[in-house]
Amino acid sequence: VPEPARLSPTTQETLSRLLTRLGGTPFEPGRVEIAAATGLLLPAARINAMRRETCALLLEARVQRRARAYPIGTGIWQAEPDGAAAAVPPFRVHCRTWAQAEAVLEGFSGAEAAVPAGISEAVPAAQIGRVLIEAPRFVRDEDALRRTLAALRARGFGRLLCQNPAHIVMGRALGFEPHGGFGLNVFNSGTAAALAGMGLASLTASFELKAADIRAIHSPVPLGLLAYGRLPLMLLRRCPFGGGGDPARCRACPGELSDRTGRRFPVLCRGDHRELLNADTLWLAGRRLPGAFRSLYLHGETPEAARGVVQAYLSGGDPPEGFTRGLYWRGVE
Question: Where residue 3 falls among pLDDT bands split at 50, 70, 90?
Fold first, then answer.
């Protein structure tokens, strides 16, 4: 309520200036009409509060006007019979070198390997059917990636592991069977249904979900979960060590960052981007897990160690030093 002004009354110009400060909102001031008596004072704080309250009401009305109702229910997202889950091998092992992939494929018939395009030349023709090409999570040059994938398709590779929606479109256009990685963020049955509708033959649940939430997902295609490896923390455009492609600096790259507690976080160089990984290794061997298959992400393991990881998930084994159970039982805090 305005009060009689003792010194400087609130003018119409002041009211107009304060009421039309709409920065940070989707609104713009139109015509301003003010009917106010002279000689009154209304504190600026109160005028600003009035403006904020009015904008909040307008935003709520705007949301209600544009809101669309979507029916939510498990009836439209029923899972396929159990036979669908048997269509994929129980282990999908993500390898950084062909030596790792070769050791896994030769040692375990119930495994398939996902490899980056950069090591695909080493894949023998007899093993192409058990190998997925893993598309890079960050793509700077889509035309270059399209050319690379087209050449791989011509060699006979038929499955593409997609980490973002652009991979799905590109892969299907080139004739690949697309499969979903963790980068597609499958969080619920709706996500699974939508991605399956885009043609994906398998999916990977988000590793930020609890195990109970993954069990509750009804997926039309086999749904797996990330069960081993150093979980990715972030993607980096710039080299944190200042390498920037300089061969001399890259040769001296330490390959890891450390925090004040001494924990070491590996940094993977992917050419045009870098990936920062967790200091601890996710280890779920011996645990009862949901999903149709397990994704095992290798880092610097030797071929013998790679076989040991798969064997541990088959028959149990001791966890490595510095391991984590991830978020599957405690959730995101």
Answer: confident
